Amino acid sequence: MESIQTEQTSSMLAQPQKEHQWLQKLVGEWRYETEALMGPDQPPVKSTGTETVRSLGAAENSSSGALWILAEGQGEMPCAGHATTLMTLGYDPQKQRYVGTWIGSMMTYLFHYEGELDASETVLTLNNEGPSMSGENKLAKYKDVIEFKDDHHRVMTSHMLGDDGQWQQFMTAHYWRQ
């Protein structure tokens, strides 16, 4: 009985991979500015806010052993007023993919991320599925792309797969470390 319990415990204690360490670049206090397209033939809408990103799974006062990051955003959203968002990101060695979730106080849908880092290790593409912005009661494919310009500036773009099979960018957010 004891050996089975020991095996289960050791398999549940994950060791950080280099992919987990990459996520630590996100940790810190950020301010952001977004520009979003709210519909065809409408001008882009701008908004601002802040984001706090912290590690989860690290030894106390250290991010070297962290397996996850939690990013909590606060700000104004076009057509939604004040909003809070929460993104979780980690890396699943079995899937060999980055995984995570995103929720926002303005909606009831839980987005599930799965994605990968590019060869330059500066661009993380996260694929997901969620409610279509067309107003129809159907799901659409989305991707969020996080690109580090440098250690203190990153850009996230959000895209939706159109009916024509082409990705359409609808949001750009610039984040600056505070």
Topology:
Layout: H1 2-12, H2 18-23, E1 28-36, E2 45-56, E3 68-77, E4 81-92, E5 97-104, E6 111-117, E7 123-131, E8 139-150, E9 153-161, E10 167-177
Antiparallel strand pairs: 1-2, 1-10, 2-3, 3-4, 4-5, 5-6, 6-7, 7-8, 8-9, 9-10
What does this structure look like?
The chain has two helices and ten strands. The protein is globular and about 50 Å long. It has a ten-stranded antiparallel beta barrel. It starts with a helix and ends with a strand. The model has no long low-confidence stretch (mean pLDDT 90). The chain has 178 residues and is mainly β. The longest helix has 11 residues, at 2-12. 10% of the residues lie in helices and 56% in strands. A hairpin with a 5-residue loop joins strand 9 (153-161) and strand 10. It has one domain (16-177): Calycin beta-barrel core domain (Lipocalin, Beta Barrel), CATH 2.40.128.20.
Individual helix count: 2
Structural class: mainly beta
The number of strands is 10
Question: Which CATH class applies here?
Answer: Mainly Beta
Spatial order of strands in the largest sheet: 1-2-3-4-5-6-7-8-9-10
Content of β-strand: over 45%
Helix content: under 10%
CATH topology: Lipocalin
User: Ranges with pLDDT <50 over ≥5 residues?
Assistant: none
Distance between the termini: 52 Å
Q: Biggest sheet, in brief?
A: 10 strands, antiparallel, barrel
Query: How does CATH name the architecture?
Result: Beta Barrel
Number of domains as seen in the coordinates: 1
The CATH superfamily appears as Calycin beta-barrel core domain
One letter per element, helices H and strands E, the order comes to HHEEEEEEEEEE
Query: Radius of gyration from the CA trace?
Result: 18 Å
Mean pLDDT: 90
